[in-house]
Design brief:
Blueprint lengths: L1 H15 L14 H11 L15 H7 L6 H6 L3 H6 L2 H10 L19
Helix pairs in contact: 2-3
Length: 115
């Protein structure tokens, strides 16, 4: 009787805790995201170093990629893309486009003491 209960318990656990692998995980970025970054950020080889403004459309496109994974975007570059665009510049967009946790101060307030 005990082996039957143990087998039933193992079968019950296998049913409840079964987590099948359905296939490879989806890519963290898409071709559409790559094209948008190439259009908005224009990381061409011949231009000097480019650091986009955090509020720019370039950074908005970068933030649409999960975890700002620019390595994924670089992996989607075609041979023609690699000849035209700088992978180094694209990889730099991850840090350039992160949002600061500190509030932006657009002006300073001076305090005058009349004492």
């Amino acid at each position: 009787m005990f082996p039957g209960k143990a087998a039933a318990l193992v079968l019950l656990c296998a049913i409840f805790f079964h987590n099948p692998v359905v296939g490879a995980p989806p890519d963290p970025c898409t071709i559409r995201q790559k094209k948008r970054i190439l259009l908005e950020c224009d990381p061409v080889h011949r231009t000097p170093f480019f650091k986009p403004d955090p509020d720019s459309t370039c950074c908005m496109a970068v933030r649409m990629v999960p975890r700002r994974n620019m390595l994924c975007i670089v992996s989607k570059l075609t041979r023609e893309d690699k000849a035209k665009y700088s992978a180094r510049k694209i990889l730099g967009f991850k840090d350039a486009c992160k949002l600061s946790s500190a509030p932006f101060l657009h002006h300073q307030v001076k305090s005058y003491n009349n004492c």
